[in-house]
Write a structure and sequence with these properties.
about 325 residues; alpha/beta; Nucleotidyltransferase, domain 5; five-stranded mixed β-sheet; 10 helices; globular
Length: about 325
């Protein structure tokens, strides 16, 4: 069964073809990073326009690379939530038109489920139940995946997500957008013990995440340093990046550690754009090893937004009979 996936939830226009939910036949991604770098972050209106300009060519390229015609496709899977509403509507509208024109069923896919499903493309043996730690630019969630469609929320972010917190810290340090990769590199050379940033907790919700206080603390730390007439030299930037990364990673792993401490023996799946961060990968790996729990890490190529993950999840949705009418709407926020 061939599923064509379409993903436009933020600033990547992506299309892919996946066979039987596990075989990656093609994956094409057009990034808008250079455009949004001019503004220090994603501008929703510009993102939507760029998606509109790119999507036809990206879908055409994905089909060509898979050596398939649209008539060979069994279903079109598309991200419908969550994300930037204009960006989502661009991909959804294109998928609707393709579905109507070709008579191929339309399958709506939740973006976070897609991130988790990226691992299905690499690990053929991976099947629910397992614990999913999804860490991306807009989402930080700890989930129990009961089956391919059913998810139970264990903890989620109350404010900013980890990826956003990285980008904001990078910006205050004068680093280029997107800041995640630069922060990762600098954290590898800086001294993480230079600054003691607080690891937050959420009163009454021990598995929930909060990054707003951490983000504010780095802003205040850099502001105080500059107000004393000091320059942001490379040593200061690297040490701050290392200390901040250490605190952010501990904010995530303390929740996972608590879950394992309580006796969870389910495998752990890491997913999302921030799953590419080397310090997070190492910390989660060490934690899983200490409890003797199996860990699945996605390759870097499948951490960020892509359509292969949407097609992979779309296969299981379609197999279970989930399809959408042409009246299907997009949602900027929607619980999993």
């Amino acid at each position: 069964m061939y599923i064509l996936g379409i993903e436009t939830s933020c600033d990547e226009t992506a299309a892919a073809v996946v066979g039987d939910g596990r075989e990656l036949l093609s994956s094409v991604v057009a990034s808008q990073t250079d455009i949004h770098a001019l503004y220090g972050g994603v501008v929703p209106e510009i993102a939507s326009r760029a998606h509109t300009e790119a999507i036809y060519g990206i879908v055409k390229s994905a089909l060509e690379k898979a050596d398939l015609l649209i008539s060979d496709i069994d279903a079109v899977a598309v991200t419908y939530a969550p994300g930037l509403i204009g960006a989502l509507l661009t991909g959804l509208s294109f998928a609707k038109g393709l579905s109507y024109m070709s008579g191929i069923p339309l399958v709506p896919v939740h973006h976070i489920k897609g991130h988790v499903a990226a691992n299905y493309l690499v690990y053929r043996e991976l099947e629910p139940p397992f614990i999913a730690l999804v860490v991306s630019g807009g989402h930080t969630s700890l989930l129990k995946v009961k089956d391919f469609l059913s998810y139970e929320s264990i903890g989620m972010t109350r404010d900013d997500a980890a990826g956003e917190a990285f980008d904001k810290a990078a910006r205050v340090l004068g680093l280029p957008y997107p800041g995640g990769a630069v922060m990762d590199r600098l954290a590898s050379v800086g001294n993480k013990n230079t600054v003691r940033f607080t690891v937050s907790s959420v009163d009454g919700a021990e598995f929930d995440f909060s990054f707003s206080g951490l983000k504010t603390s780095v802003i205040n730390y850099v502001h105080n340093h500059k107000s004393r007439g000091n320059e942001l030299d490379q040593t200061f930037i690297a040490d701050t990046a290392a200390s901040y990364t250490d605190a952010l990673v501990k904010t995530i792993t303390t929740r996972l550690n608590l879950l394992l401490e309580r006796g969870s023996v389910l495998p752990i799946v890491l997913a999302g754009g921030v799953a590419a961060n080397s310090h997070l990968r190492k910390a989660v790996g060490e934690l899983a090893e200490s409890y003797g729990v199996k860990l699945y890490l996605p390759p870097l190529s499948l951490c960020g937004d892509n359509a292969a993950m949407i097609a992979a999840q779309g296969y299981y949705e379609f197999k279970a009979g989930v399809t959408a009418p042409l009246s299907q709407n997009a949602f900027a926020t929607k619980n999993i």
